[in-house]
């Protein structure tokens, strides 16, 4: 990184497609972390995203080099969720192994440093998972960012906080004495929660994801069960599916169960087009 304070990357390879100009009036309020599913360089990501309908703002390669591929002021197609895309910076990380997935020390350190720098630059506060740092899997049914959300999660977030404290001169407060924990109500099954989602009891979009996570549920698993319960049917003939997909991306058809209800038999075909465009 040439300049962490101003977010000046080592290399700028700005895409000319597969992103949305501007941010639809939205404010950046989070960082979303990804992994490549391979060991890509910045140039490698550029080549892939020139032909695939997906993108992210930054790539951190195996040597720790940082490439910018979409300007922060524009909306990259990385989260599989339009609202999340409009309000986030997407950071990709190169893997050094696939079985198990793993990112290298240089990638972890500079990825965490970049996360801290983004949080500082946009006034998001100290990096904290679930507050201003999220994973791709929090917004889409995917395992991305693999080890960053698993075996390397604690090390990544700890390093991001250390970098933030160093960049801001912040001294973290001493941990407070833990209060007595209230009794935790028994968790419901994924099946039960999925049926509650269909009934509209958990809201839609980001609100639903946040409420499910806060309640201790795997939002992606619940959404998968919702999809299975609602099923898919044959689209109506003589319908312009691309036009419907445009309307879905604009937000005309809402989210989740509401979108499925309003699209009816066209839902599966339209959602497939939306997924392809948004890089799901």
TrEMBL record:
<protein>
    <recommendedName>
        <fullName>N-acetylmuramoyl-L-alanine amidase</fullName>
        <ecNumber>3.5.1.28</ecNumber>
    </recommendedName>
</protein>
<dbReference type="InterPro" id="IPR002502">
    <property type="entry name" value="Amidase_domain"/>
</dbReference>
<feature type="compositionally biased region" description="Low complexity">
    <location>
        <begin position="171"/>
        <end position="187"/>
    </location>
</feature>
<feature type="region of interest" description="Disordered">
    <location>
        <begin position="169"/>
        <end position="192"/>
    </location>
</feature>
<dbReference type="GO" id="GO:0071555">
    <property type="term" value="P:cell wall organization"/>
</dbReference>
<keyword id="KW-0961">Cell wall biogenesis/degradation</keyword>
<feature type="domain" description="N-acetylmuramoyl-L-alanine amidase">
    <location>
        <begin position="16"/>
        <end position="146"/>
    </location>
</feature>
<dbReference type="InterPro" id="IPR036505">
    <property type="entry name" value="Amidase/PGRP_sf"/>
</dbReference>
<dbReference type="InterPro" id="IPR051206">
    <property type="entry name" value="NAMLAA_amidase_2"/>
</dbReference>
<dbReference type="Pfam" id="PF08230">
    <property type="entry name" value="CW_7"/>
</dbReference>
<keyword id="KW-0378">Hydrolase</keyword>
<dbReference type="Pfam" id="PF01510">
    <property type="entry name" value="Amidase_2"/>
</dbReference>
<dbReference type="GO" id="GO:0009253">
    <property type="term" value="P:peptidoglycan catabolic process"/>
</dbReference>
<dbReference type="GO" id="GO:0008745">
    <property type="term" value="F:N-acetylmuramoyl-L-alanine amidase activity"/>
</dbReference>
<feature type="domain" description="Cpl-7 lysozyme C-terminal">
    <location>
        <begin position="241"/>
        <end position="279"/>
    </location>
</feature>
<dbReference type="GO" id="GO:0009254">
    <property type="term" value="P:peptidoglycan turnover"/>
</dbReference>
<feature type="domain" description="Cpl-7 lysozyme C-terminal">
    <location>
        <begin position="190"/>
        <end position="231"/>
    </location>
</feature>
<dbReference type="InterPro" id="IPR013168">
    <property type="entry name" value="Cpl_7_lyso_C"/>
</dbReference>
């Amino acid at each position: 990184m040439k300049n962490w304070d101003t977010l000046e990357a080592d290399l700028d390879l700005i895409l000319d497609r597969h992103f949305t100009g501007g941010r639809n009036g939205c404010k950046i309020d989070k960082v979303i972390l990804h992994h490549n599913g391979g060991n890509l360089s910045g140039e490698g990501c550029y080549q892939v995203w020139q032909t695939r309908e997906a993108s992210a703002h930054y790539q951190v390669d195996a040597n720790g080099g940082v490439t910018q591929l979409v300007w922060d002021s524009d909306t990259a197609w990385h989260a599989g969720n339009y609202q999340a895309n409009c309000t986030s910076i997407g950071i990709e990380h190169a893997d050094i192994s696939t079985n198990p997935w793993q990112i290298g020390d240089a990638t972890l350190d500079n990825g965490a440093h970049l996360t801290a720098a983004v949080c500082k630059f946009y006034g998001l506060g100290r990096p904290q998972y679930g507050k201003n740092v999220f994973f791709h899997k929090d917004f889409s049914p995917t395992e991305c960012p693999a080890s960053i959300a698993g075996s390397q999660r604690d090390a990544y977030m700890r390093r991001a906080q250390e970098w933030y404290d160093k960049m801001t001169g912040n001294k973290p407060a001493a941990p407070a004495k833990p209060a007595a924990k209230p009794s935790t109500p028994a968790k419901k099954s994924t099946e039960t929660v999925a049926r509650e989602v269909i009934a509209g009891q958990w809201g839609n979009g980001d609100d639903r994801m946040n409420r499910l996570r806060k309640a201790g549920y795997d939002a992606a698993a619940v959404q998968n069960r919702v999809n299975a319960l609602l099923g898919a049917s044959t689209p109506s003939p003589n319908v312009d599916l691309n036009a419907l997909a445009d309307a879905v991306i604009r937000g005309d058809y809402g989210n989740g169960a509401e979108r499925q209800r309003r699209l009816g038999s066209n839902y599966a075909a339209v959602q497939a087009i939306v997924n392809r465009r948004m890089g799901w």
